Amino acid sequence: MTKVRVYVAYKASILDPQAQAIQAATHKMGYQEVTELNVGKFFDFDFDADAELAKEKAIEIANELLANPNMETYTVEILDEQSEGVN
Amino acid sequence: MTKVRVYVAYKASILDPQAQAIQAATHKMGYQEVTELNVGKFFDFDFDADAELAKEKAIEIANELLANPNMETYTVEILDEQSEGVN
Questions:
Q1: What is the CA A66 to chain-centroid distance, rounded?
Q2: Domains of chain B, with CATH numbers?
Q3: How many CB pairs under 8 A join A and B?
Q4: pLDDT digits (tens, 9 = 90+) for A42-59
Q5: CB atoms within 10 A of CB A86
Q6: Which value does ipTM take for this structure?
Q7: A87 contact B CB<8A
Q8: What start-end ranges are recorded for coiled-coil regions in this protein (chains A, B) (predicted)?
Q9: Of A34, B10, B69, B76, which one is least surrounded by beta carbons within 10 A?
C-alpha cells in the first residue's frame, strides 16, 4: 500500500480572487506579516500498489480527472510505502 | 521570509461526498488500485517573519479563519525559511 498526495493549484498566471480575499482578511485581522498567499487542493490516495506504480497511476488520475490543464498545475508526492501484509 | 503551508481537511468522522465521488470516478476509469481518498485544501503563506513566529501566526490564522473547528482539522508545516535580504 502506498500513500500518495496530489497537489492541484492554479498556474501562477491565473488570478485567484479567493486567495486575495483570504490574504486581505488576514491583514484586516492584524496579520501584516502575510506577504503572499496561494491556495490549492490536495488529494490523499491510498493505492494498492508499490510506490512506482502508485505514482504513475496518480499522475494519470491527475491528468485525466483532478487538474484542469488550462488553469491548473499539479505535483505528486509519495507520502508513505508499506510492505504487503503490514497494512 | 518563511514559507508555511497550512493543510485543512475534514475530520475523519465527517462524510465527504466529494471524495467519494472522485474515488468512484477513478474506479470507473479503471484505477481499481485506489482504496482510499481524502480531499482537503492547502494554503501556502509567505510570512515576513522567522520560522517560529510564522508558525505561530499560521496557527492563529488557521484557528481564526481557515478551518471550521466543527468539521475540520488543520496541520501547519514550515516549507522554507530564508535569511533577511536573500529574498
A1: 10
A2: 2-81 (3.30.1280.10)
A3: 97
A4: 999 999 999 999 999 999
A5: 7
A6: 0.89
A7: no
A8: none
A9: B69
